[in-house]
Amino acid sequence: MTAMDVDGIRDVAAGAFAWLSAHRGDFTLGEDALTADGHVDATWKPLGELAQTCASVRAHSPPSDPLHACASDLLRFAWQQTGRGELFLRLQALEPFATYPLEVYSVFASAGLRHSGYETAAATTARTRGWRLTEQEPTRRLGVLKAEHRSGIHRPEQDPRLLRRTWLGGLPEPWTFERSSGYALTHVVFHLTDWGRTPDGVPADLAAYLADWLPAWLDTCLDAGMWDLSCELLIVAASLPSPPDPGTLQHAWPRIARAQHASGALPEQGPRGDGEAVPEPDFRRCYHSTLMAAFAAAQTLKCLTGEGGMHHGYEEQGAPG
After folding, report:
1. Per the CB 3.0–4.6 Å rule, which of 138, 168, 212, 276 could disulfide with 185?
2. Read out DSSP for 215-282?
3. Which residue blocks in 83-137 are alpha helix, DSSP H?
4. pLDDT score for 276
5. Cα–Cα distance between 145 and 46 in angstroms, integer?
């Protein structure tokens, strides 16, 4: 990759963070975030995804990097939206066996933002048979186990067969790749590597399989204008034990850059680039892909430059329970 290529990737990240900062109000938790019939996908999910991206970018960029400062600012905003963790304790009382509060909370915990009262309550629930026996797809189960570990809930070593029950873990025929399996495999890698922090968490046979087939899958997604999934695959490529082929990155990032709007927003999918005038999509149809563009760019830059972030957390703590 040339210096110009690196600068172009950095421009994608800077643009994405500019859009996210300008739209932080759209991530605000509304009154329905604590109601029994509230829409989690429109409240906690976007906020949790904002926090996860910012925690990851913060971990993968040096403190002197402006991207690090932007990520830290938005992560602080997201934590404040939760009442510095207090709202998780209220969610625990409303939905004691729902896993999404712990999954979102664990993102903050991984960055050093903790609430001791919630962790105590969650640990109590996690000791029940009802919690342990909740039926989940294997990929989701890996995520819940990772959330438990991040939140201080430690169990004996997990059954290794769980990984092998995921689409990626079974090493399927590569031609069976499709959108749903694509998102499943990216999240398996996210969980195995703690969102890119520990590349060696990917077993050798999975790493070799991905090295062989991920470039072709990425090219397919780029051709289809699937920008969101393309960015997730770029995160995976930069999170594996061996660095991605430079040619794969040289081919992919200019296409992502052309798909990005001048505001920094990246649509989830659609024909964008080469001078096409396409209206910017609304928040719901571009926030996640814009987050993934920021994350993928930061992870790729770390891979190319070798400059990682400090893995320390904030000194700020949540309110005691």
Report:
1. 168
2. HHHHHHHHHTT-HHHHHHHHHHHTTSSSPPPHHHHHHHHHHHHHHS-TTS---SSS---TT---PPPP
3. 86-94, 100-110, 116-126, 129-132
4. 56
5. 21
| Cα–Cα distance, 319 to 11 (Å, whole number) | 37
Q: Do 171 and 213 form a contact (C-beta atoms < 8 A)?
A: no
Instruction: Check residue 320 and give its pLDDT.
Output: 37
Q: Which residues, 6+ apart, have CB-to-CB distance to 222 below 8 Å?
A: 230, 251, 252, 255, 256
Low-confidence stretches of the chain (pLDDT < 50) are 4, 275, 310-321
Residue 317: per-residue pLDDT: 45
pTM above 0.90?
A: yes
Q: State both tokens at 102.
A: 């712990």
Q: What is the pLDDT of residue 177?
A: 98
Local structure of residue 128 (DSSP, 8 states): S
